[in-house]
Amino acid sequence: xxxxxxxxxxxxxxxxxxxxxxxxxxxxxxxxxxxxxxxxxxxxxxxxxxxxxxxxxxxxxxxxxxxxxxxxxxxxxxxxxxxxxxxxxxxxxxxxxxxxxxxxxxxxxxxxxxxxxxxxxxxxxxxxxxxxxxxxxxxxxxxxxxxxxxxxxxxxxxxxxxxxxxxxx
Length: 169
What we know:
Radius of gyration: 16 Å
Largest sheet: 4 strands, antiparallel
Shape: globular
Distance between the termini: 24 Å
Order of helices and strands: EHHEHEEHEEEEE
Number of strands: 9
Strand order of the largest sheet: 1-3-6-7
Oligomer: single chain
C-alpha cells in the first residue's frame, strides 16, 4: 500500500529545533502575522499535496516582508512531510480557514509530531529532518543585485529547488 503524506511548510532556520523537538503546538510560526496567533495556538498546521504550493508561496511573501536578507536570516521556505499513519486520527481536525485559503484540504494536529517522523525535501529527495544540515538554503534563492557595499542581495528563485517537483500544481 502506498504511503499517504501530509505536509507542513516552514523555514530553514527552524529545522534544527524541529529535528530536536519535533513539531509542537503553540510554537512560533514561519507564516502569518501576529493577528493569527490565536488561530495558530490551535495546533500544528498540515495540508494535503495540493495545498503545499499555496503555503510555500505564503512563506516566501512573509519572509520577504520581514527580512532584508532572506538567506542570512534563514527564512528560506522548506517543505516537511509526515506519513499520515504517524498522526493519530483522533489528533487531526479539519482546518476550515486553511482549507479556504489554500483551496485544498488542511488539518490541525494536536501534536506533538516527533522529529523522527518528519522528512524534509533537500532539493533532490526526502531526508530525515535530523539531517537538516545537509540542506543548502542557496537552492531556494538567487543573487539578483549587490547593495551599496557590494554585498550580494538574494531573492527567491522563481522555482525553488527546495520545492519538490511532485508537488507542483
